[in-house]
Each structure stands twice: as C-alpha cells, then as structure tokens.
Amino acid sequence: MRNLILIILFPLFVLFWLACQGGEREAELPETTAIAEQEKEAEDSVPEIKITSPAFVQGGTIPARYTCDGDDICPEMSWKNVPEEAVSLAMIVDDPDAPGGTWIHCVAYNISPADTSISTEEIAAGKEVVMGKNSWGKMEYGGPCPPSGTHRYFFKIYALDKELELEPGATKEDLLKAMEGHILARGELMGTYHRRG
Questions:
Q1: Are 96 and 53 in contact (CB under 8 A)?
Q2: Nearest partner of 186 among 44, 35, 31, judged by Cα
Q3: Chain segment 71-87, per-residue pLDDT in tens
Q4: Please, is 38 exposed, middle or buried when counting C-beta atoms within 10 Å of its C-beta (0-12, 13-18, 19+)?
C-alpha cells in the first residue's frame, strides 16, 4: 500500500518541482525584453507631430527631383501639433534599407519651434537651421540614391524642451545623445525611391 502511494505521489512531486523551476527561469529572463517594452511605451506616450510634404504622401514615391537623379534638393516639409513648450526642433532623414546599415541623408537642429515648415532653400543655405553631418561627411541634405531596389526614406521631426549645445557638423549619433530626455514630441514622414534604368 505504501509503495502504491509513493508511486502515485512521486510524479505529482516531479511536476510540482518542474513548475516551480519554470517560474524561476521566467523571472530570471534577461531584462532586455522589459527594457524594450518600456522604451516602446515611452515612445508611444510621446505626442505625435503630423508631417506633410507637397512633394509626396506618406508611403508614396519621392519625385526624382529630390534625389541624386535630379536636383538633389530637400523636399519642403510642413508640420503641426508641436507642443507650445517646445524650445527647438531637430530633423533627421535616413535610409534603414542601405546595404551597409542605416545611411544618414540629413541632420539638422536648433530649428525655431515657431517655424511650421522648412523649405528647400533654407536647408540648402543653412538658414534658420544648424546643419549636421550626413553619411557622405557633408553638412547638407543628400537625396535618395539607392544602389538597387526600392528603399524607404524617413523624414523625422523632433520637438525638444531645450536648444541643443551642438556645434555645426554634429552626427546623427551626437544629435540622438543630445536629445535624450528632452523629446516632447516626434513625427515622421516616409517616402520610397527606386532608381530607373
């Protein structure tokens, strides 16, 4: 009788022990997942800036005029929903589909929050804006020029609670570091481009 009881209880004990161990393993998972979720939560909680362009719509094709196959100029951008407490704006244009990693096409900062748009001429002249350095090593806008296939280009605007103490020529990494903890709102407009021929 005693042996029968042991035979019945032993599997139950093993199952209970495994369940406890599984709970411990779950609790001891790396924190990266939790951190990623927190970061996404923080990003989602930031108000959205609505960005539009007369050149293309969200997800649409960027006209050749604004690429290396045309005049290679920055398309005009307009935005709204910038928080009243914003002290400056920043802009990043990049291509995450580049074969060697994300390619930076434009970095700009300390744009006046009173501005609701930025023109081709302002970017070209560096007027009302401080220009950073792109992946070509130049302090200017460089248009889409994918080596093959269709690439996505993200035009991002950030509203900040301070004016950044960055000299002209800062990189995207410099800008992102300087903006940490100071982003009030953000928005992006994505366009695509595929070179013909």
A1: no
A2: 44
A3: 999 999 999 999 999 99
A4: exposed
Neighbouring CB atoms inside 10 A of 180's CB total 7
* Residue-wise DSSP of 104-141: EEEEEEEE-TT--EE-HHHHHHTTTSEE---TTS-SS-
**Rounded Cα gap, residues 139 and 123, in angstroms:** 10
**Burial (Cβ within 10 Å: 0-12, 13-18, ≥19) of residue 74:** buried
What does the alpha-carbon distance between residue 94 and residue 190 come to, in Å, rounded to a whole number?
Answer: 10
Distance CA 103, CA 34 (A): 29
As a whole number of angstroms, the distance between CA 70 and CA 145 comes to 10
Helical residues (DSSP H) of the chain, grouped into ranges: 2-27, 32-45, 120-125, 172-179
pTM, 2 dp: 0.77
Task: Considering the domain delimited by 48-194, tell me its CATH architecture.
Answer: Alpha-Beta Complex (3.90)
pLDDT at 69: 96
Domain ranges of the chain: 2-30, 48-194
Give the up-direction half-sphere exposure of residue 85: CA atoms within 13 A in the CB hemisphere: 6
